[in-house]
Design a protein that fits this description.
Layout lengths: L1 E3 L8 H15 L8 E3 L11 H12 L7 E4 L1 H14 L5 E7 L12 E6 L3 H11 L5 E6 L3 H13 L8 E4 L5 H9 L5 E7 L12 H10 L4 E2 L12 E4 L2 H16 L15 E6 H6 L12 E3 L5 H4 L1 H53 L1 H27 L5 H29 L7 E4 H11 L1 H6 L3 E5 L6 E4 L1 H18 L9 E8 L4 E8 L27 H11 L3 E6 L5 E8 L2 H4 L1
Parallel strand pairs: 1-2, 1-3, 3-4, 4-5, 6-7, 6-8, 8-9, 11-12, 14-16
Antiparallel strand pairs: 10-11, 13-15, 16-17, 17-19, 18-19
Length: about 575
C-alpha cells in the first residue's frame, strides 16, 4: 500500500508517489498489486477524524493483510506509527519522502525502514544571497497546516545567522489572496521563498500546484524553493531534493524487504540536496548572470547560441570540409600517380605489343617473302619483255602500254605488302583516331591471306552492311585481329584440309557497340580453360609465349571494349570483341 499524506494529487508528494510506483514496477522481480490510500487529517490536525479511517483500513485488510506499506510524507509516517499496534503490528513499513526531523526514531520497530531526506534551509537562503547579492528582503510563503507550522519554526531557527544581513517576512498569518497581493507589490531587492501552501490562515485548502502557479503569475520578485517539480515551472533554481534519488532508494528498500530482508537492517543515510539546477528563463527574467551561480550548477531551458544550436551541424560541416579537402588532395595525388602509371603502362604495352607484332611478322616471314616474290618476278619478266619489244624494228605500242600497266599493278601490289608489313612492325605510341572498322578488319584478312593459303586455310570476312566508325588506334586493333587469325590458323594445322576455315564477321551489336568475331573450325577450347586463355603466359602452343591474347585483352580494354572466348555448338571456337561506336554513329 502507498499511504499518501495529503491525497494522491497534492504536490510534491504526488510526484514522489508516482516515481516510487514506476521504480517498483521497473525493479520488482514479481508482479505487484499496489493500492493507494490517503489521510484526511493531515491538513487540519484533527486526531478524532482519523478513527473512522483506522476502522476502514482495519476492515479492508483484516482478511487480506498487506505485505508492505510505503508511507509518503511525514503525516503518513506519523499516522502509521500512532496506529501500528491496532493496524499493522507485523507489516513491514518503509517511511519515505520525509525529512529526518519528522521521524520519531524512538518509536521505530524491527519492521520499519526509513528513506529520509535532509533539508538545509540555511543553504537555500545562502543560495538566494549568492545569486542575488543585493537582496534585502525574503518573503517566506508558508501555510497554516500543522506540518507547515512546524516548518515555519524550523526555517526561522535555521536562518537566524542571516538576520543581520536580510529581513525575513513570514506570510503564514495571511490568507492566500492577501499573500498574492503582497507578492505583487514587493519592493526591489526582494525574493520569495516557497515552502508550500496546503491550508492558508483563512482555512482555505490548496493543492500546492495551483497555488504556486497563481503566485508565479503575479510575483514581482524571483521565487526560490527546493521542490524539484517546480524547477522549470517558476523557481529560479538552486539546491533541490531530487525525486528520483528518493524513489530509487525507496524501491530498492521495498524489494529487499519483499525478498525477505529485515526492515530494520536496511540503513539509508539522509538524502542530501542534489547539484544545483537553474531555469535559464527565470535567470534572464530577473537579470541573473551565469557567473553568479554556484560552481557546477546545471542550467535548464537555456536558449542556445547559434554556435551551440547548430554545433553538430557546424562540426559535421567542418569535418566534411576537412575530409573533402583531404580526399581531394589524396585524389589529386592518386590521379597524378594513376595518370603516370597509365602512361607508363601504355608505353610498356606498346613496347610489348610491338614485340608481339614483330614476332608475328617473323612467323609470317615465309608467306610475306612469297607474296613479295610473285609481284617482283612478274615485274622482272615484264621488264625483260618490254626491253625486247623496244629493241624491235616496229614495237607494238599497245602491247607496251599493257606491259607498263602490269608493271604498275605488280609494283602497287608489292608496295601494299611492304606498307602493311611496315605498319605491323612500326613502333608507335597509342594514337586514337576515328577509324572505319570494316576497312580495318578487312585489311588484316587481306594481309594474312597468303599465310592462310599456304596452310590450306580458307579465310572469309563478312563486313557489316553499314560503315562502323570507332575511336581507337588502327595498328593496335589490327594487331588484335591478326593475333586471333594467326592463332586460329595454328590451331587448324592438325585438322584435315577440307575442315580448315576461319570466318571474320563485323556487325553492329547495339546502338552503342560494334562487334568483331573470329570463328574457326578447330577442336574448340576445353571448358576448364576458357577462363584462362587471356591470362599472361597461358598457351597451348609448344613454342608459344602465352602473351598474344593477354596483350589483345589489354588493347581492347584500353579502347573501352571487352573480349571473350566461347565454344561453338557445331564445333570450333569463337573469339568476340566489342568496341564503343563513335558518338556520331551512336546518335
Amino acid at each position: 500500500m502507498l499511504l499518501h499524506s495529503f491525497g494522491r494529487e497534492v504536490r510534491p508528494w504526488s510526484d514522489y508517489a508516482q516515481s516510487i510506483r514506476s521504480e517498483l514496477q521497473r525493479h520488482s522481480p514479481w508482479p505487484l498489486d499496489i493500492v493507494d490510500h490517503s489521510l484526511i487529517s493531515a491538513r487540519s490536525g484533527d486526531d478524532e477524524s482519523e478513527r473512522p479511517f483506522v476502522e476502514y483500513l482495519r476492515a479492508l485488510f483484516a482478511e487480506h493483510p498487506l505485505d508492505l506499506i510505503v508511507s509518503v510524507g511525514a503525516p503518513a509516517a506519523g499516522f502509521v506509527q500512532r496506529y501500528r499496534p491496532q493496524l499493522f503490528a507485523t507489516t513491514p513499513m518503509v517511511f519515505t519522502a520525509v525529512e529526518q526531523r519528522r521521524i520519531q526514531y524512538a518509536n521505530l520497530t524491527a519492521n520499519d525502514a526509513v528513506v529520509p531526506i535532509r533539508i538545509d534551509f540555511l543553504a537555500l537562503m545562502t543560495n538566494i544571497l549568492r545569486v542575488l547579492p543585493e537582496t534585502q528582503n525574503v518573503a517566506v510563503v508558508v501555510g497554516a497546516a500543522p506540518i507547515e507550522q512546524f516548518w515555519r519554526e524550523e526555517i526561522r531557527k535555521e536562518v537566524a545567522p542571516l538576520a543581520d544581513r536580510v529581513k525575513f517576512t513570514f506570510y503564514n498569518e495571511l490568507s492566500f489572496e492577501d499573500i498574492l497581493q503582497r507578492a505583487a507589490a514587493l519592493p526591489p531587492h526582494s525574493a520569495i521563498f516557497w515552502e508550500g501552501m496546503i491550508v492558508d490562515a483563512a482555512g482555505a485548502v490548496y493543492d500546492g500546484e495551483g497555488a504556486f502557479k497563481r503566485l508565479h503569475a503575479v510575483a514581482k520578485a524571483p521565487i526560490f524553493g527546493y521542490y524539484e517539480p517546480n524547477i522549470g515551472e517558476g523557481f529560479v533554481g538552486g539546491p533541490y531534493t531530487a525525486v528520483l534519488d528518493t524513489s530509487r532508494q525507496t524501491a530498492s528498500a521495498a524489494v529487499r524487504i519483499l525478498s525477505g530482508e529485515k526492515a530494520d537492517a536496511i540503513r539509508i543515510a539522509p538524502i542530501e540536496f542534489a547539484q544545483p539546477r537553474f531555469d535559464w528563463r527565470e535567470m534572464r527574467r530577473w537579470g541573473i548572470s551565469e557567473s553568479q551561480l554556484p560552481p557546477g550548477s546545471m542550467i535548464d531551458f537555456r536558449d542556445p547560441t547559434a554556435w551551440e544550436q547548430h554545433l553538430p551541424l557546424i562540426a559535421s560541416a567542418a569535418i566534411v570540409i576537412l575530409l573533402q579537402a583531404g580526399l581531394i588532395g589524396v585524389l589529386f595525388h592518386e590521379h597524378r600517380r594513376r595518370r603516370n602509371a597509365e602512361v607508363e603502362t601504355r608505353q610498356r604495352m606498346a613496347e610489348l605489343a610491338h614485340i608481339n607484332r614483330c614476332a608475328t611478322a617473323g612467323e609470317m616471314s615465309a608467306s610475306i617473302a612469297h607474296e613479295l616474290k610473285q609481284p617482283l618476278t612478274a615485274i622482272h619478266s615484264n621488264a625483260e619483255a618490254l626491253e625486247l619489244m623496244l629493241n624491235s624494228a616496229a614495237p607494238d605500242l599497245h602491247e607496251i602500254r599493257d606491259i607498263a600497266a602490269d608493271i604498275r599493278k605488280d609494283d602497287k601490289r608489292a608496295s601494299e605488302v611492304l606498307r602493311r608489313l611496315r605498319g605491323l612492325v612500326k613502333r608507335s605510341a597509342f594514337e586514337p583516331k576515328d577509324i572505319e572498322l570494316n576497312e580495318t578488319v578487312g585489311e588484316v584478312f587481306a594481309f594474312v591471306a597468303v599465310l592462310a593459303n599456304a596452310r590450306g586455310v580458307v579465310l572469309r570476312c563478312v563486313a557489316a552492311p553499314q560503315p562502323l566508325r570507332v575511336r581507337g588506334d588502327r595498328i593496335q586493333l589490327q594487331q588484335v585481329v591478326l593475333n586471333l587469325i594467326v592463332n586460329g590458323i595454328d590451331v587448324l594445322a592438325d585438322r584435315p584440309r577440307a575442315q580448315r576455315s576461319i570466318t571474320g564477321r563485323v556487325r553492329r551489336k547495339d546502338s552503342a557497340l560494334a562487334e568483331v568475331s573470329i570463328l574457326d573450325s578447330g577442336p574448340g577450347i576445353p571448358a576448364n580453360r576458357l577462363g584462362q586463355v587471356f591470362e599472361p603466359f597461358f598457351t597451348t602452343k609448344h613454342q608459344g609465349m602465352g602473351m598474344g591474347l593477354s596483350i589483345a585483352r589489354t588493347i581492347i580494354q584500353a579502347h573501352g571494349g571487352d573480349i571473350w572466348a566461347e565454344n561453338r555448338i557445331d564445333g570450333g571456337a569463337v573469339f568476340r570483341l566489342t568496341l564503343p561506336l563513335s558518338v556520331s554513329i551512336q546518335s
